[in-house]
Amino acid sequence: DAGVTQSPTHLIKTRGQQVTLRCSPKSGHDTVSWYQQALGQGPQFIFQYYEEEERQRGNFPDRFSGHQFPNYSSELNVNALLLGDSALYLCASSMINQPQHFGDGTRLSIL
Amino acid sequence: GIQVEQSPPDLILQEGANSTLRCNFSDSVNNLQWFHQNPWGQLINLFYIPSGTKQNGRLSATTVATERYSLLYISSSQTTDSGVYFCAVESTGGTSYGKLTFGQGTILTVHP
Question: How many angstroms from the chain centroid is the CA of residue B63?
Fold first, then answer.
């Protein structure tokens, strides 16, 4: 039974570019959440998707957007990248009212 | 929004020692999870414990929801226990549904 899988594992971009990160949830999970973890900090909630709709959103600008597909997989898109967007991006999946399980993350570096 | 405070921020132990990590939160919760983040960044689920006590091998956790705190106990620590321990909560407030709020973490270093 595969856990949460994320791709790519590492990514290097330059300022102003756009990036798409991908997440496949654990089998049987229908809810996907995205978090940003800056160096030395705890993860910060970006948003959550359920039934292909954004259900909750954290305090992130509109440059951060997402999508959930009918198979429950999800994408995180970030436009107009800034140096401050350099971080570990974590995806978590869950069923409703159940604990969240995290993938290994995508480490994004902005030059 | 809900506030989560973890203590101590740093902890250094000799192998074999026991330790207690604390997580205080400022509002009622319907989800509380403890995680271990290893040096490669992987967040590993330790406990899902919105209330009560659970044990898993050398680790155990207790959440007293009415007093808004949770404790993680590590007994007979090993070098592989090193890493960052996070407490994360989901408030019962309607606008927080599905959102985990993390504490700043406790950095644990276990020396051989």
Answer: 10
